[in-house]
Amino acid sequence: MFTGTAQELREREEQARQLAEQAAALLDQIDALGLGQGGGQLHTPGGMIRNRPGQGWCVTDR
Question: What's the pLDDT tens digit per position in 40-61?
């Protein structure tokens, strides 16, 4: 469990969101290889990474 300050929590949540955005971009690149698309969603501290048909992977708030 996180025990830092509120400011530290916000900073870490933002960092988690940025990392989730990078993961979504990598999933798009994997799908672009044409070997079949991934499906579903991943839950992260930075939000949910979801595959939206025809739109690729994106990060959404919970």
Answer: 898 988 789 999 888 899 999 8
| DSSP at 15 | H
Ramachandran assignment for 50, one of left (phi > 0), alpha (psi -120 to 50 degrees), beta (any other): beta
Give the CA count within 13 Å in the CB-facing half-sphere of 32.
9
User: Which residues, in sequence order, are CB contacts of 15 under 8 Å at separation 6+?
Assistant: 46
Distance, in Å, from the CA atom of 25 to the CA atom of 35, rounded to the nearest integer, reads 17
Q: pTM of the prediction?
A: 0.80
Q: What digits encode the pLDDT tens for the residues 3-29?
A: 999 999 999 999 999 999 999 999 999
Calpha distance 33→10 (Å, rounded) = 35
